[in-house]
Amino acid sequence: MQLFLLSTTPPTKFISWRQYKKSQNGKRKDYILKLLQATPEGLTNREISDHSGIWIQSLCNPLKELEKTKLIKVEGVRRCDLTKRLVQVYAING
Questions:
Q1: CB burial class (10 A; 0-12, 13-18, 19+) of residue 62?
Q2: SS3 21
Q3: How far apart are the first and last CA of the chain?
Q4: Cα→Cα distances 60→3, 7, 11, 39, 64, Å
Q5: Which phi and psi angles does 59 have, rounded to 5°?
Q6: Is the separation of the CB atoms in 63 and 45 below 8 Å?
Q7: From the CB of residue 67, how many other CB atoms can be counted at a distance below 10 Å?
Q8: Cβ–Cβ < 8 Å for 48, 88
Q9: Model confidence over 8-56: pLDDT tens digits?
């Protein structure tokens, strides 16, 4: 909190940034849900990123939140073609 008090950035800028981030996260979640509904076999994080153009790192939080609220589930694992690692496959829960 001390950093905030010493900052010359106006508090309204922090508030608007939080609101912007929240709205972007909501849009990502909606997009992920629509994409997974169209792909019943499920998609990995990288496949979602390839379809959407959204960075993989930007998908982690929305995927975790959707999984936490039971809207999506981890359907299984598959080997990534690029990294050869085992990765989770996400699908609509239901």
A1: buried
A2: helix
A3: 43
A4: 27, 30, 28, 19, 6
A5: -95, -20
A6: yes
A7: 15
A8: no
A9: 767 776 666 666 666 666 788 999 999 999 998 999 999 999 998 888 8
